[in-house]
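user: Kindly work through both lines:
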Amino acid sequence: MRLLLCLSFLLLQFYAEAQQSIYSVLHFAHETSNKGKVKLIEESRTFYRISRVIKESRVLEYNENQQLLVEKRYSKKEGKYLEVMFGYQNGRKAYRKRTAKSDDGFSTEFNSYRYSKEGHLIEMVYYDADSVVTRQITLNNNENGHPIQLKKYRGEELIGIEEARYDYSNNRVYIKALNEFGDVISEVDYTVDQRLKNPEFTYDDHDNVVAFPRNVKGSDQMYTLRKYKYDDNGNWTTMTVYLAEKRGDKYIFMIKDSVFKRKITYYK
């Protein structure tokens, strides 16, 4: 069961259409955490699973303002491919074009972004390859520019709502998902600003997370550990991820989960 869940999560994360949410909108403007003038990142990903090893590749291209221009993900063995291209206007993300290849063939989607006069994201419109609107997302924001309500439409039909309550003193946001009838179907909470340190996590000298509990609110002692290697600019070039059990101040039963390796090219 654990294997099936892991594989399902990876496939959804790697190939499936990204579903916009209040959580993703909160991190919409904070996608780049690189140091220095990064031009290109070529990344290999290896996931160690019970029955097999999964290998993927990713390429990220940035402009000189450190805005992401192109993201490519592919797996030669699986025959999967994903390319996402971004365009900018007045310093803000204006559009996104997504092309994917899977067992079902190629698919293309285009979406545009609209902002308030204060510069806060208020609308996302999705189009298919024939320029027909397939989905629409609208947002209401609070005085800090954070979304307090998100509505999802399929064509003209309302299909879901998210509502958020913020506890800024504890850096938490509490999100409820509702169906089209207003019934609550799920409730979760997240960190509002991931750039602020979480007291439950352990960090290294580069401010990257090196250890965090699997279930912050739970009582189990399972942790995710990360070991990094860095280049001269302070960007990591290798990240090895382990799963481990914590006993006192020590980690035991360490299992290698994945390895990420990056070749980084900088603007001169």
Remarks:
- The first strand starts at residue 38 and ends at 48.
- The chain is about 5% helix and 60% strand.
- Residues 98 and 115 are 21 Å apart (CA to CA).
